[in-house]
Automatic annotation (TrEMBL):
This is ATP-dependent DNA helicase. Coiled coil: none annotated. It comes from the Eukaryota. It holds the Pfam family PIF1. PANTHER family: ATP-DEPENDENT DNA HELICASE (PTHR47642:SF5). It catalyses: ATP + H2O = ADP + phosphate + H(+). Keywords: ATP-binding, DNA damage, DNA recombination, DNA repair, Helicase, Hydrolase, Nucleotide-binding. SMART domains: AAA.
């Protein structure tokens, strides 16, 4: 082979002359292999002397000094290090961003610490439960997937708790992946508005669930599922907010998609991914859904019944966590939450509503009970804002 390289010749189609193999190879190497000699020399020195610990200092000494000063400054924190009852909070491996196109953790360490301190007893108990599960996973154990339903009335801190769970779970589970920026915790909600409020994604966009799907054809093509799998292959926890707006059909699609992404059999619920559902069934129900298709209705004849009833552990928050002014209104909402249609309001509740009602700024979103009221308000705003009108 070496003789062919040094002495061999070849003849190309359409060329009458013979060409040297050596000259062709050398020319191609010069075109496609840049700095080959330098790389070989560098590899030789690395094998003989080992890595140069001061390489950055030699390349750019001033930048290296600044980098080391930044590291030293980062070790000094202005946060009061009290006993937070949150072990490992100051772990240097914490990550504030999951670094994918799907989602980013928006809170920094300094922002999350006050939130963690403000958790009440029940909120902390839920956080520790999720946190203990994450620690087991990070230690190489295989605990059973979590199926947790966090519920509570208005002002009980459900969204507040979601952020704390997301931050802690992401920070701990980052240790289970080769790339700490892999997505391990995914925040979702059934509607765009609900997803926006928690800085998450809609269930449909995050998991590739389309209107054309049916229970008999719930899987994606191989091309689409492979693309989704590259983003979700390390997913450990799925958080679904506003679970009251999710029906059994949509939850079945979630199960099927996660099972397909994780390449698990049908009996492996949600593909082995832990699911934390958050919401209040006293609030908005799923759109255009029969009562028997709502999650809380126990219907053994429905194949999707096993995905909710008897599976999810319930954790209820009942302490109002809002400020005093908002707290009074939140308490009123919780009283209305359990009233019957024909049950009258108390005199105190009527006075509270009267006190809360007022004229807000024009640019604020106004909600009315009838289309006629909406039309009247829109016309008034158009007359105020538009100085010139054109009619056909």
């Amino acid at each position: 082979m070496r003789n062919f390289f040094t002495c061999g010749t070849v003849k190309f189609e359409g060329d009458n002359e013979l060409s040297s193999v050596r000259e062709i190879v050398v020319k191609n190497m010069s075109d496609f292999v840049k700095d080959g000699h330098d790389l070989e020399e560098a590899e030789k020195q690395l094998n003989e002397k080992g890595p140069n610990e001061d390489a950055w200092c030699e390349l750019c000494p001033e930048a290296e000094v600044n980098r080391r000063e930044c590291i030293d400054e980062g070790k000094v924190t202005s946060v009061i290090e009290e006993d937070l009852s949150i072990p490992d909070l100051n772990n240097e491996k914490s990550s504030s961003s999951v670094g994918t196109n799907l989602l980013s953790v928006s809170l920094t360490k300094n922002e999350i610490i006050p939130r963690l301190r403000s958790l009440n007893v029940k909120q902390r108990r839920i956080l520790y439960k999720v946190r203990d599960w994450c620690i087991q996973k990070s230690n190489g154990k295989t605990p059973e997937p979590l199926h947790l339903f966090i519920t509570g009335g208005a002002g009980t801190g459900k969204s507040h708790l979601i952020k704390c769970i997301q931050y802690e779970a992401t920070r701990i589970l980052a240790q289970t992946s080769e790339n700490p920026d892999d997505l391990t915790v995914l925040l979702t909600a059934p509607t765009g508005t609900a997803a926006f409020n928690i800085h998450g994604l809609t269930i449909h966009s995050a998991l590739g669930i389309f209107k054309t799907l049916s229970p008999d054809h719930a899987t994606l093509s191989e091309d689409k599922i492979n693309s989704l799998r590259t983003k979700l292959e390390n997913l450990q926890i799925l958080i679904i907010d506003e679970i009251s707006m999710v029906n059994k059909k949509l939850l079945f699609f979630v199960h099927e998609r996660l099972r397909q992404v994780k390449k698990r059999p049908d009996k492996c619920l949600f593909g082995g991914v832990s699911v934390i559902a958050v919401g209040d069934f006293y609030q908005l129900p799923p759109v255009k859904t029969k009562r028997v298709d709502k999650l809380y209705v126990d219907d053994p004849s429905n194949p999707s019944n096993q995905l909710w009833n008897g599976l999810f552990e319930i954790a209820e928050l009942d302490e109002i966590m809002r400020q005093r002014e908002d707290g009074l209104f939140a308490e009123l909402l919780n009283r209305l939450r359990v009233k019957q249609k024909n049950e009258s309001l108390t005199l105190f509740d009527k006075r509270t509503l009267t006190h809360c009602f007022g004229d807000g700024p024009d640019e604020a979103l106004h909600i009315y009970s009838t289309n006629a009221e909406v039309d009247n308000f829109n016309k008034e705003m158009i007359m105020k804002l538009c100085t010139e009108f054109k009619t056909n």
